[in-house]
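Hi all, posting the design record for the shared folder.

TITLE: backbone redesign
STEP: 1 of 1
STRUCTURE INPUT:
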C-alpha cells in the first residue's frame, strides 16, 4: 500500500470513530490499585496529577508521572500499579472507541502510551468529570465531545508519521484499496471488487463493512467525490471531464452528489477554491 493511501485510510478511521464515554472522575487512588494482566473491553485514559504509576501494554512497560496523559487500550494485554509508599492522584476515564466492529486502538499504533499533557488536557478532563455527573442532554453530548478531544490531545503529541495503521486483518484490504484508488474512473461494483480478494460478493460486502465501518459502494462514492474536489480546485477541466475522470457517467447526478456533499454546486465550489488561492497569493 502506498504511503498516501495509508494516510488517507488513517484519516478515514479517525473521522469515523464512534466514542462512547462511560465514566470520568478525579481523586486519590487506593494503595492496592494494581493489575498484572488484563484484557479490558474498554479503553482507559489517565491524567496523573500527583505521584507515579507503572503501566504496561502488550508487555511494554511505561512510567507515568505527574503531568502525563496515558492510554491503556481495549482488547490489549494491559497492566497497572501504583508505586508503593507514594500517593497517587489522577483523572481517569473509561470509554470505547470503535470503527465498524473494530477497536480504534487495534487499528492504529502509536510509539507509546504515555505523553506529556498540557493545560488543555487538564481543562478537558475537568469538563469531562463535570459532564459525567450530569444527566442532561447537553451534558451527555458534551461528555462524548470532551473524551474525543482528549483522544485528540493524546494523538497530537506524536508526529503524523508516528501514528500508523496496525498490522492485522486490515492488511488484506490494502491491495483492494490501491485498486479502487487507481480505477475511480471505471465501473466498480461488488462483483469486480470481491474478485480482487477472491471472495463471494455478499460475504465481501459484510467483510468490508466490518473492517471499514461503511459499505464498499459508500467508500467508493466518497473517494470519487474527494478526487472530484481535487480536480475542481486544482485544474480547469470542464465539469463533464471531471465527472468522467471520477466515474460519474451522468453529469446531472455528478452535480447533485457533489452539491449534497459540499453544500454548494461544483461551479461555485471551484470559484470558492480559486478565490481562496488568489487571496493566499496576495
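Okay, here is what came back for every position:
SEQUENCE:
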Amino acid at each position: 500500500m502506498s504511503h498516501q493511501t495509508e494516510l488517507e485510510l488513517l484519516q478515514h478511521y479517525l473521522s469515523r470513530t464512534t466514542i462512547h464515554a462511560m465514566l470520568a472522575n478525579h481523586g486519590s487512588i487506593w494503595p492496592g490499585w494494581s493489575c498484572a494482566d488484563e484484557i479490558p473491553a474498554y479503553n482507559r485514559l489517565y491524567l496523573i496529577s500527583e505521584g507515579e504509576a507503572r503501566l504496561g501494554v502488550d508487555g511494554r512497560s511505561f512510567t507515568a508521572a505527574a503531568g502525563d496523559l496515558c492510554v491503556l487500550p481495549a482488547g490489549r494485554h494491559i497492566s497497572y500499579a501504583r508505586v508503593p509508599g507514594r500517593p497517587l492522584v489522577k483523572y481517569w476515564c473509561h470509554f470505547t472507541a470503535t470503527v465498524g466492529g473494530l477497536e480504534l486502538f487495534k487499528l492504529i499504533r502509536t510509539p507509546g502510551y504515555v505523553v506529556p499533557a498540557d493545560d488543555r488536557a487538564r481543562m478537558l478532563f475537568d469538563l469531562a468529570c463535570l459532564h459525567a455527573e450530569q444527566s442532561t442532554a447537553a451534558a451527555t453530548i458534551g461528555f462524548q465531545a470532551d473524551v474525543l478531544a482528549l483522544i485528540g490531545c493524546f494523538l497530537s503529541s506524536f508526529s503524523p508519521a508516528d501514528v500508523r495503521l496496525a498490522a492485522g486483518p486490515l492488511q488484506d484490504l490494502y491491495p483492494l484499496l490501491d485498486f479502487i484508488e487507481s480505477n475511480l474512473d471505471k465501473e466498480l461494483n461488488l462483483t469486480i471488487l470481491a474478485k480482487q480478494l477472491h471472495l463471494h460478493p455478499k460475504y465481501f460486502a459484510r467483510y468490508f463493512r466490518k473492517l471499514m465501518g461503511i459499505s464498499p459502494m459508500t467508500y467508493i462514492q466518497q473517494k470519487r467525490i474527494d478526487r472530484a474536489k481535487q480536480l475542481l480546485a486544482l485544474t480547469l477541466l470542464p465539469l463533464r471531464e471531471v465527472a468522467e475522470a471520477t466515474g460519474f457517467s451522468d453529469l446531472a447526478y455528478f452535480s447533485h452528489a457533489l452539491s449534497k456533499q459540499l453544500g454548494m454546486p461544483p461551479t461555485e465550489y471551484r470559484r470558492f477554491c480559486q478565490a481562496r488561492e488568489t487571496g493566499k497569493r496576495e
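COMMENT: The longest strand covers residues 18-28.
Let me know if anyone wants the other runs.
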